[in-house]
Specification:
alpha/beta, Rossmann fold, ten-stranded mixed beta sheet, five-stranded antiparallel beta sheet, SAM-dependent_MTases_sf, NDUFAF7, transferase, EC 2.1.1.320
Length: 388
């Protein structure tokens, strides 16, 4: 009726349309679904992330309370693994008030999360407008569900976004002789029930707002929603403290066309059968860094294999191998380690990126003042692990 739509509108409709959207209808994670994520492959992944948060909590002087806020928690596997670590280190966290806050738009997935994390003991929450559901984890920690990050209560928080930003709607742009043009999705006049990409005849509001003047690429994908969310995280961390860890496939402002679809673990034409496949695009970490607007310090992106190695995955693997006598378990552990760490599998394509308060990283001007306090502890995962 209105002519071509932006790629962002197309993506939003295909993924989150209330009746027919891919995530609202099925959200196919896991072996039987359309894609497999790291926490589904190995518990070690989530455990090491849990350790990262505890290490940051200790480094900032063990505040009396912290919120763990996960954006788009999938089936809840990652939070479950992190909670197991918190439980194992309960004596360390005994004086700390820990709560879990999940930002989830899919009703289907929030049910799966509730089942995994609380064993299904949840109540929908009508009187409190912000959280639509609440429960208690199997280990006794309160869990709340929200539709928007804005609804999560303020306070010292650790944010986690694992394979979250890659599913947010992107705008696509192409440089032409007449300047930047936006890539749009249109009906193919030759084949009535098929879609095709076209270029906007003139510049669109998005081309004027989202292309950086210093851009050197000829094709660019921009995710304004990711920019907004990163700004919100940066503001919260600047004001209340904490940290954010982002793990996703992406690049540092170098790639061009990364928009793709997945169905049954295979690449799927993004314009075919919208609503039946997962649509995704690589995260541009250089854009996220720019969008913090200097409110927080940023670390990374570094490759997943490097982050996990720095976090001590090799040591953890040895312990798990020693503790199990079963050849099938050994096989499974080595296979999942290879999936996570092998540069040809997930090791190289996934990246870790962190937002931290500026004061968490040593101030360069302190170096000349010998009377300043002891040096700040290094940030785990982003530097080599030194075993004392």
């Amino acid at each position: 009726a209105t002519g071509p739509v932006t790629v962002a509108e197309y993506m939003r409709e295909a993924l989150t349309n209330p009746g027919q959207g891919y995530y609202t209808r099925r959200g196919g994670i896991g072996e039987g679904g359309d894609f497999v994520t790291s926490p589904e492959i190995s518990q070690v992944f989530g455990e090491l992330i849990g350790i990262w948060y505890i290490s940051e909590w200790i480094a900032t002087g063990k505040p009396k309370a912290f919120q763990l806020v996960e954006l788009g928690p999938g089936r809840g596997t990652l939070t479950d693994d992190i909670l197991r670590v918190f439980n194992q280190l309960a004596s360390l966290l005994s004086k700390c008030d820990v709560s879990i806050h999940l930002v989830e738009v899919s009703p289907k997935l929030s049910e799966i999360q509730a089942l995994m994390l609380t064993g299904g003991k949840v109540q929908s929450n009508a009187e409190d407008k912000s959280a639509y559901m609440k429960g208690i984890s199997k280990t006794g920690i309160p869990i709340f569900w929200y539709r928007d990050i804005q609804d999560v209560p303020p306070g010292y928080s650790f944010y986690l976004a694992h394979e979250f930003f890659d599913a947010l709607p992107i705008h696509k742009f192409q440089r032409t002789e007449k300047g930047w043009r936006e890539v749009l999705v249109d009906i193919d006049p030759e084949v009535p029930d098929q879609l095709r990409f076209v270029l906007s005849p003139s510049s669109t509001p998005a081309t004027q707002n989202f292309i950086q003047p210093e851009e050197t690429r000829d094709h660019v994908e921009v995710c304004p929603e990711a920019g907004v969310i990163i700004q919100r995280l940066a503001c919260r961390i600047e004001k209340y403290g904490g940290a954010a860890l982002v793990a996703d496939y992406g690049h540092d402002g170098t790639k061009t066309d990364t928009f793709r679809g997945f169905r049954n673990h295979k690449l799927h034409d993004v314009l075919r059968a919208p609503g039946t496949a997962d649509l995704t695009a690589d995260v541009d970490f250089s854009y996220l860094r720019k969008m913090t607007q200097g409110r927080t310090a940023t670390l990374g992106p570094i490759k997943q294999w490097e982050f996990l190695k720095n976090m001590g995955i090799d040591l953890r693997l040895q312990v798990l191998l020693q503790n199990s006598r079963d050849p099938a378990t050994h096989e499974q552990l080595l296979h999942s380690y290879d999936m996570l760490m092998n540069p040809k599998k997930m090791g190289d394509c996934f990246n870790f990126f962190a937002l931290l308060p500026h004061h968490r990283l040593a101030h360069p001007d302190k170096k000349h003042k010998p009377e300043s306090k002891s040096p700040l502890p290094p940030v785990a995962g982003f530097g080599e692990l030194l075993l004392k």
